[in-house]
Amino acid sequence: MAVLAHDTTPVILIDIGGVLSPDRPPAAAARWSGRLGISQQDFMGALFGGNDEWILIGRTSQEDWWRTVRGRLRISGELPSEIRPDLAAGQRWDAELVAGLRGLRGAARTVIVSNAWPEMRGRLPGSGVLDAVHDVVPSCDAGCAKPDPRIYAIALEQAAAATPAQALFIDDTEGHVRAARSLGLAGHVHADTASTLARITAFVRAAPRGEEREPPEAGESDWRRRARPRSRHRRQPPLPRSASSTMASRRAWCAPRQ
């Protein structure tokens, strides 16, 4: 017997770096590597080497990580406090894309899913992005990062998605999009603003609206179960030099909107 479907409001899951905020680390990296007398590759390695297992998933604090970076670069005094704001100053937001998401209010639920350091918390309030989305799922608060299936599951839960097919995932990294598709989400690899907005519009327009459908068969596999991590325990690496394993706080970035 047919039953009324769950809320079928389309869901948009979207990345920050390289999508909502075009990445510009090379310019700052070039300036600072020249000033420090090292290669740009070494500068970027000092900043991000090992971050996937630590600050990116909230296993160490921002300050502890920067102590690690300071030790790697062998710098002291005021230089660290100059580097951090200089890196942040290069960040800009795609106003057209943000406006497009804001225009979806009432037609779709949008959740940011980003592999982000804790300092992103301080940048979002002044970005104009928070009033365009329903929620934010950063890796440093989720405790896992893309392409880990768990972060997609968390984002779907935050968006109140009944099924993965209800969601379109947008990222500039093909591997992250491929992981989302493997869980049943629609996927779009971001290349430019126009094509991404067109893909969002087409997805929202094609979404079903509260039609009746048959209930799932008993014992049908649950997408939440598919998103659980494998039971094989992965041994964590030792903490990078000079950093401790202080867990970053898991606090909300913005209040979910109805």
Brief description of this entry?
The protein is an alpha/beta fold and 258 residues long. The protein contains eleven helices and seven strands.
Task: Pick out its properties.
single chain, about 260 residues, alpha/beta, two-stranded antiparallel sheet, about 40% helix, about 10% strand, elongated, disordered C terminus
Task: Please tell me about this protein's structure.
- The protein is an alpha/beta fold.
- The chain is 38% helix and 10% strand.
- It has eleven helices and seven strands.
- The protein has helices at 25-36, 40-48, 62-73, 79-89, 95-102, 120-123, 139-142, 149-158, 174-182, 193-206, 223-226; strands at 3-4, 11-14, 109-114, 135-138, 167-171, 186-189, 212-213.
- Helix 1 crosses helix 2 (40-48) and helix 2 runs antiparallel to helix 3.
- The model is unreliable at 1-5 and 211-258 (pLDDT under 50).
Write the layout of secondary structure elements.
Blueprint: E1 3-4, E2 11-14, H1 25-36, H2 40-48, H3 62-73, H4 79-89, H5 95-102, E3 109-114, H6 120-123, E4 135-138, H7 139-142, H8 149-158, E5 167-171, H9 174-182, E6 186-189, H10 193-206, E7 212-213, H11 223-226
Parallel strand pairs: 2-3, 2-5, 3-4, 5-6
Antiparallel strand pairs: 1-7
Helix pairs in contact: 1-2, 2-3
